[in-house]
Amino acid sequence: MNNKIIIAIDGYSSSGKSTLAKKISQKLKYKYIDTGAMYRGITLLAIRKKIFNSDLWNIRNFIPFLKNINFKFKWNNKFHKTDIFLNKENIQYEIRSLKVTKKVSLIAQIPEIRKILTIFQRNIGEKKGIVMDGRDIGNSVFPKSELKIFMKGSIEVRSYRRYKDLQKRGEKISYEEVKKDIIHRDIMDTSRKISPLKKYEDYIEIDNTFISMEKQLNLIFQLINKMKKNNHIII
Predict the structure, then answer these.
(1) Could you read off the pLDDT of 99-136 as tens digits, one per residue?
(2) Hey, is 4 helix, strand or coil?
């Protein structure tokens, strides 16, 4: 009998969803799925196909490219992290570029693309035992997930995290530009018509503006241990 669960982590851009999800998955020995990386992968494909160029921006021109798309997540032993592959190509580094970041919110609000990726994500989680992060996992992809977490943080702290990450990658951008981009992404994520970013009643909210990763993990595993006792599940 499969007693494993699905842990859904949703939240704002640069709120620490991925870092928390990775650490939870490592401790539980669960599969970690970064759905944001999938949307970034499709954004990268759109950029390569020049879909954003002037009058070529038409969803009907782009959807046919997605018919045979395939994502795979593989553990990288050398760097101790999970890499994402798009049609056998490792795109982990390229999808974090500034050019992808600036376009991903446009791709994420297209209903046809969300439908394709939602089906793909549900197939991955069919046997449970996963930690999945994104914007609509707990309310749209896996509404019956056993544990739903909603991540948030101040715009200043989130902008600084993203700014430092881009600096490490060699991207030339100012803190103010990063902050402006994140504010724009927040607006796009919360105002889109299909599966907008929103905290529902069954989410556990974590504002990690001033909370260390250690305290966040302690909180999560307190919740998991409580679930074990109350529901007699084995995780």
Answers:
(1) 999 899 889 988 999 999 999 999 999 989 999 999 99
(2) coil
pLDDT by 10-residue block (mean), the chain, 235 residues: 86 94 92 93 92 69 86 82 90 93 90 92 92 95 96 97 91 94 94 91 95 95 86 60
Q: Where are the domains of the chain?
A: 6-231
- Does domain 6-231 fall into CATH 3.30.559.30? no
In 3D, which of 22, 19, 30, 29 has the Cα closest to residue 211?
A: 19
d(CA 88, CA 120): 16
- The distance of Cα 41 from the centroid of its chain, to the nearest Å, equals 12
| Amino acid 54: pLDDT | 61
Residues contacting residue 183 through CB under 8 Å, at least 6 positions apart: 155
H-helix or E-strand spanning residue 39: helix 35-48
